[in-house]
## 1
Amino acid sequence: MSLARETAAGTAPLRSEIAYAEPSMAGASDYLALMKPRVMSLVVFTALAGLVLAPGHMHPVLAFFSLVCIAVGAGAAGVLNMWYDADIDAVMARTMDRPIPAGRVKPGEALAFGMVLAGFSVVFLGLMINLLAAGLLAFTIFFYAVVYTMLLKRWTPQNIVIGGAAGAFPPMIGWAAATGGIGLEAILLFLIIFFWTPPHFWALSLYSVEEYRRARVPMLPVVSGVEETRRQILLYSVLLTPIGALPWALGTAGLIYGATAIAGGALMVALAFRLYRSPGKRAAKQMFGFSIVYLFVLFAVLQAERVLGLQQFGLPFGRVFA
């Protein structure tokens, strides 16, 4: 029996209790924790970039409402992820105190909570904003909760690569909310997050490899080894550098963004190369930490340029794509 099959088989007893669980005494903080607020804040921040960069003007109230729906949708995906992964979380040190494995929230309550949040976010975004944005949000929730959590995470070491698409959709949802369509800039933001995700999460998996092995999750370092994971982190970091600079190269972002993207990409590659040459938990943690800073700064500069009207200082040959 394969590692993934053993893992999938071991989840049945926990979820079979859903229909018969006694009500829990969970507090508001437990339900908030189920929504993964740190991930939710990153989703809102990247979705805001799609709203800010979109052409035209969206009424501030509608923009705020769109972000609320996107945040709730992201929270719903997080809840459904924690519901299904409760068996994994229970054996990993960094997750065993989450509300479900710690016994503060019953699995059935978490499932119901996640489904209600998902329905609310999609329906209201569709009714109040537009159907394209709602459809993209629904697909993102489905992709994260079903395709990534229930399928990819337990079956393939490429789970993060393919599943990373879920985290890359928020800028496109924000753009769609503002315009009713999908533009080049939204696609570029999707690509940046998509190629950023593997080195970010694989760095985390390097210093949590024993926990993933104990939980029987086929993460790349568990299946292919630590050395191959370090090599893949370096490869994706090298690919990320020019992709991160594409908004500037294609004339949709200004010189400040271009310089930030190139400098940030160079630092990502330098840290990835050091991790490749000098393996260890410290190097992996530094890589993981800087990757968060890299994405935040990149998107913050991009939005600041647009608000201040500095994006016109992009490369002139790229304006035909803008």
Note: The CA atoms of residues 234 and 272 lie 5 Å apart.
## 2
Amino acid sequence: MLATSRLYSFLDHKSGVNLNFLEGQKLIHDLVLLHPKQGNGFAYFRDTLLGLMPIIFFLKPGESLGIYIDSEEPYFRLKIETNSVGQTRTLLLPEEFNLFPNRLTGKIRITKTGHHAVPYTSMLELKDLDTREVINQIFNESYQTNSEVIVANQSDQSLMVTKLPPLNINVQVDETESRKQYIKKNELFFQEVFSMASDDIEKIVKRFEDEGYSYLGSRQVDFFCPCSMDRMVLNLRGLYSQDLDELFSETGSVEIKCDYCHKAYNITRADVQGS
């Protein structure tokens, strides 16, 4: 049985680099059950999810984040919503989407909510952008971090490398080494970690510590949908308050299914009327 997926954080003091390692095997296992796509469509879904989930590291307690990719070429809609404790839900439309696009043209909307009164929103334009660079553009332009994500081929895992500003480091660091140089220098180690394909906390932490990294902590990452009967009823009440006869023209109840988790709710006319 797979262990719950986790996002691990490590620090390389000497190089001034933060590593966030996502062990996502359980996450992708559950993605298969929730969204049983096949072929290239699922491969794209998998790679994008693994690539974006390390962004949780940047969320403060109580914050939530929504990432919405509206691609026009090729046409699809991808939604990923998560929060500081790793509770996540996803949606890729159309359901029959079966491409792994090489390049994308469209828009990305990032919305962050939390303790601030007004949600933070940013928009990014995608103009014939290499698919692999979309994730890094979100980190570099929306979050303005010197980060790069590596998604494993042989295991459902990913690694985010962030070169920290000198002010964030309490010891003398090598400021001459770029993020790309650091990744190239440590490429064999990163591939070795992916090859382990381990979901064991102790083994993962020990392997990074053996390489000289300081362990900062970890958090769970799993699928969670806040949908409920009450929410579904409120949605129908808002949409059909004046058209109940049309909504219940054939039967006394309707089945509504959540797009995210596919849970079905049987809602009656009395539910919507509040009686």
Note: The radius of gyration is 21 Å.
## 3
Amino acid sequence: MSHISIISSSVRVGRNSHRVALYLQNYLSENNLASMEIVDLKKYNFPIFDERLKNQDKPSDSALEFAEKIKQSDGIIIVTPEYNGGYPASLKNAIDLLYNEWHRKPIAIATVSISAFGGSQVITSLQFTLWKIGAWLVPKVLAIPNIEITFNKEGVPNDKTNMDKQTKGFIDELLWYIKIKKQATSI
């Protein structure tokens, strides 16, 4: 069984995107699709980026732990809110901290917004950043609009049937990329 890390990227007080991370964790578990864990950037509280992990003289234990979680994951789901058309600095920090760990890693992106657009403005800049470091980007995006009414604080969607249907295609794409990568690396 594959292992997927779900990165909850917002560290903001009163964050809403974490609801989607909780939902995805439950979805993967309920459907027995992969082992998973939420990698919560709020827990890590990284300082402002000053150097890649591999170039640091004395990296913190939390940075080493984060790097190992990414390295050991078969695939990644990034759950990101849209802040003023971009993604949070906490996510940029975490991405820039690592390099080799992201290389050829299948990554799917779930965007979250309080508006009706579901974080559509954040996707291009985040995909470009991940592409530049050699990640394998899953083309299908899970866009969640109106987060405050779409999910409750525990990550339960108001319309579970419809959300599960959307999520199935999203997760199926990520699992396909994971499978292809495993096949390619076993040759």
Note: The helical segments are 18-30, 41-44, 61-72, 89-97, 123-132, 147-150, 160-185.
## 4
Amino acid sequence: MISKANNFAYIDGANLHKGIMNAGWSLDYKRFRVWLSEKYGIRSAYLFIGLIPKYKELYKYLQECGFTLVFKEVIYDGDGKPKGNCDADLVVQAMRDAYENKFDKAALVASDGDYAGLVKFLLEKEKSPVILSPHPQERCSILLKRTGVKIAYINDQRSNLAVRK
């Protein structure tokens, strides 16, 4: 992607957080936002995330880093774990923006096969999507791989994007 382009990123916040956490490191979100801009020409980065009031400082920080937060109301499962499934909201936003021709190319930060339909749609619309997988290659969905879309693995950028102590 070209750095001067008008490209948008659609980020599954839970998928990003879990993928990086499972890889054993912490993402520097400010550095990540700069990297998205410089490497992929991302002008707008939508971060889809569950809304939990006790994390309001985190949300403020993410906004200061340059992310546009899109909140989903959270429900709790039987074990009391929060669930803020944002997949449908992310797909609707990306498709709406594509139909309204708001961006040139799209980056999808997720490893979930539920997004394969969106990837195919973006390919048909010639929006040249790229997947930025927070999970390692073996954990990235085969459904995404079968679309033929370019996939980059965020873990490969660990030395550039990890929180420095």
Note: The chain has a mean pLDDT of 94.
